[in-house]
UniProtKB/TrEMBL annotation:
It comes from the Eukaryota. This is GH64 domain-containing protein. InterPro entries: Glyco_hydro_64, Glyco_hydro_64_fam, Glyco_hydro_64_N_2, Osmotin/thaumatin-like_sf. The keyword rRNA processing does not apply. Residues 1-21 form the signal peptide.
Amino acid sequence: MRGFVQCAAALAAFMVGQTLASPVARSLPGPVQVTPKTGDVVITPKNFLNGTWKGNDTSKSEVVHSAAISGTLPIEIVNNLAGSSSGSINAYIQGRDTSGAIVFVLADGSFYYPPGTSSGVPVAISEDLAIPLGAQGTTTSITIPNYLISGRVYFAVGDLTFYMVSGGLVQPSATNPSDASANLNWGFIELTNDPTAGLFTNISYVDFIGLILGMSLTSTDGTVQTALGLTADAVDSICTSLASQTASDGYPWASLCQTSTSGAYLRVLSPNDYISTDGSAFSDYWSSYISKVYSTYASNPLTINTQNTPGNVTCTTGGSSIMTCEGSDVTFAEPTAGDIFGCNSGPFAVTGNAVDTAVVPRLCAAFHRGTLLLPGGNLQPSLSADNYYTTSPCNYYSKFVHEKEVDGKGYAFSYDDVNPDGENASGELTSGSASLLSITVGGPST
C-alpha cells in the first residue's frame, strides 16, 4: 500500500513537472464540417414556407402553363462563378401563388404544383425542379409566368432537395450540417411579386452567407437599382478573418464557418444562427462590456436620437441593471449575447410604445458595432461608419461581411440600417413596375 502511495506521489510530481515545463495547449474552436444525410430534415421558421396545395388530391402534381399577364417577371441570370461548366449550377424558383398554394417555376417557364401531403414526415419532391444555367460567362433567361408571393430564387452547385410536409414546403437549411443539401454550395435571394404592392427582392446576410449573389432591377421607366453583393472570394476571406479572430480572443468565430466533406469552405452562419445550434456559444462574450455600459450611463445620460417624432430621448440606468428611457412604457434590462446578436428578444423584443420601437434598433445596433463607450457614443446614432467595429467586443461577423460588400448594401444583422443620415444600406430592391430582374452568380461582373 505504501509503495502504491509513493508511486502515485511520484507520478503526480512528474505530471506537475511536465505540466509546468510543457503546458498542453487547448484546442481552439474551428469550422464545422458538414455530414449530409438523406432524410435528416430539421424544420425551422427559416426553412419552412407555409402554404396549401392545388386542389384536394395529394397523390398527384400539376403543371400550369400560364398565359402572359401583368404578373410576369423576366429574369436574366449571369453565371460569373469561376470554373463552372454548363449544367453544374442550377436555379430553383419557388413560393406561393396568389391563392396561397406552393408552386415552383420549371425550366420551361411553367408553374409546377407539387403534390401536397397530410404527413408530418417530410416527403422529398421527385420532380426535376432545377433550371440549369449555362457555363461561366453566359446568361440564362427565364420568365416567372405569374405573381409569386414569399418566393425565393435558389442557386446551387449541384441538385438541391426540397420536401413537402403537412402545412407547406421544407427548404434546405443552412443551420443543419446534416441537411441533404449541406455539402452543396448554395444561396438564395428573396422575391415577392404582389399584384397590389409590386415587386420586392432582397439579398441579406442576417442569417448566413453562401453562394455569392448580386442583382439589379430595371423598371419600365428605365430606372435601375442595384445590390451588387459580396466579392467572389468573400466566403474564404471572411472565414480566414474569423479564424484569426478566434485565435485572438478564443471565441468560436471560426465555427460560424461550415466546410464541405472535402474541407472547402461552403458558407458562414451569422452568430445569431450559430447560437441556435449551440446555445452556450458566446454566452459571456458581451458580459464585461454590458456591465461597463450600464455603469457608464448610471448618471451620465445616453441620448437616443429616434430620428422621428419622439426626437431625442434620454436614457439612464441609475446604477442598476435596468435602463430607463424617457417616454418609454417599458424598461431595458441588461441583454444577453443572444439578445444582442438577434435584436429580437429580452430587452430588444419590441413590446412597448413608439419610443420603445425607436430605442431598440438604435441600442442594439450600438452594441453590435461597439460604439457605446467611444467618444461621442453617448448620442446614438451619431458616429460615422468608420467608427464601427473599432473596439472589442463587437460583432466581427458583421465587420468582416461589410468589408467584403461591393457597394455597401446588405444587412449583416437586424437593424443594420441604423445610422446618422438614414442611408438605406439594405439589399432590398423594389418597384411597382418592374421590367427585368438581373441576378449574378459567383460575384459581380467585371
